[in-house]
Amino acid sequence: MLASSAQLFVAFRFTSIFVAAWPCAKGVLGIATVLLGGSLTKGRDWAAFGALVSCGLGLLGGLIWIVYALLNGLFTLVSVFAMGMCLLGLLLTPLCIPRALKLSAVRRELLRGL
Fold it and tell me: What residue ranges do the domains of the chain occupy?
């Protein structure tokens, strides 16, 4: 999502605020997804649910953007790849949720004794 928004800002001139705000929102969502993914690798339960939400929003936003872009004569392959990565994250993140919940419970139990 971050690469997609960077590509759009470099390559295109936007004619309205809404169209210019869309890549900004996708870029922020991309940064959030990267940060949540890093926290998910540490077994944080809140990151698992946050990554699930951000991947879902990224997939929905990517689909809306591709339909809007195609209707207006614009197509970027990076947007399709970003949508595919969000779909992959949306499919794989639920596999991590049980382990993240278990790791977070163990971490809380260990820190409770301090």
Answer: 2-112
